[in-house]
Task: structure prediction
Amino acid sequence: MSYSIGEVAKIMGVPTSTLRYYDSMGLLPEVRRENGRRVFEDRDFKWLRVLNCMKKINMPVSKIKEYVELVQQGDSTLEARYAMILEQKQNIEQEIAELERCRKEFEYKEWYYQTAIKAGTEKDLATLMVDRPTLDIDIIPKNYKSKEVE
Result:
């Protein structure tokens, strides 16, 4: 089946200008043209999914372009492409770990504010805060009892 750039943009949830930009940067080498219009086929979605992932992980356009060029060169670049994918996977894993750390920090803050709101003050919670500089995540006390609630 064939798709217009507008249809593909809608399916992908991106503006048509994004697809035009990708094309202008040479990131859509397999997309054919008819009468000057881009025509996407079912097979193009496999590449569009990969491209979409690359953009979502903030892979630089220059790196994506390098990957596209390697793909176009064929089997002689399999190892280089594999190395690029491993590098990006490692970047993703590092970002996931950082996001997990941030999630834990926000879980603590969620508990903190729920507890303070329930007590009507954060005065008792202030004693839980460490006075030394640290980047360690605060830990929700297992048996915390608010003096205001008792």
Notes: The radius of gyration is 25 Å. The beta strands are 2-3, 32-34, 37-41.
